[in-house]
Amino acid sequence: MDVPRDLSALSVPLVGELVARADPWEPYRLIDPAGEPVEGARAFLRDLQGAGRSAATARSYGMDLLRWFRFLWAVEVPWDRASRIEARDFSRWLQVAGQPRRPHWRRPSDAGRWAAGGMPYAPSVRAHSETVLRSFYDFHRDIGTGPVLNPFPLDRARRGRRAHAHSNPMEPARNDRAGLYRPRVPKRVPRSVPDEQFNEIFARLPSHRDRALVAFYVSTGARASELLSTWQAGADPGRQLISVVRKGTGEVQ
Fold first, then answer.
1. What is the pLDDT of residues 121-151, one digit of tens each?
2. Residue 214 CA to chain centroid, in angstroms?
């Protein structure tokens, strides 16, 4: 039953936290307001680790779960009893209320509360949150510990269709399995230096050594943070290879 919920008057306490731990078997743990582990999130994060996801991914997913659990604690709905109504209201809350506002020394009563009026979340953040929560409930549905119906379902207009039924097989496949509450994420133009500006920078370099290094860095296609992780022994000019520490996995590649 869809009982109206006054989201405009809702204030979400910033309780619970995602705790970083030194334990490699459990690098992050979601804690409830009483200081106890949230077992549903704990099992999901273990499953992520089993699928080969990095600790950075666990942290990213854990922050999305913390946001969702804080909302559920505020509306007093257990996570395993959440329905599409809670998912819809949460999606509206993220869109309209925005991010938690930092407490101001002139308004100490605002500390520890998440109320409407903060900076809006970017569509990409809300889309990532929807993907994480849909995966979370898919996992618990499959192992029999969560709701039978996922609170974050796929778009009803797309569920019954065969994926890529009318697509050109010569073109890259699109993601036609979008979530019902997933916002549209605008396509961003890749950040790059225009050719004219790059040529100007390249011409102003003081030596052939610097020009060779810049040409080498650009040709690798690696991130700046990955290039900063290189060392002299990691370069193999004969095979035109360079070893870097990957951002996502933290492994040498």
1. 999 999 999 999 999 999 999 999 999 999 9
2. 32
Find where tokens 């009483």 sit.
Answer: 34
Give the integer Cα–Cα distance in Å for 37 and 9: 29
**In one letter, which amino acid is 168?**
N
Q: Which amino acid is at 214?
A: V
DSSP at 207: S
User: In what helix (H) or strand (E) does residue 163 lie, and over which residues does it extend?
Assistant: none
**Strand 113-114 to 17-20 pairing:** unpaired
Name 37's Cβ contacts closer than 8 Å, sequence gap at least 6.
Answer: 29, 30, 31
pLDDT tens per residue, range 9-20: 898 999 999 999
What are the structure tokens assigned to 143, written together? 């192992």
Indicate the pTM of the whole model. Answer: 0.72
**Residue 29 pairs with which residues in a beta bridge?**
19
Angle subtended at Cα 131 by Cα 156 and Cα 77, rounded to the nearest 5 degrees: 85
Question: What is the C-alpha separation between 198 and 156, in angstroms, rounded?
Answer: 47
What residues pair up with 235 in beta bridges, in sequence order?
Answer: 242
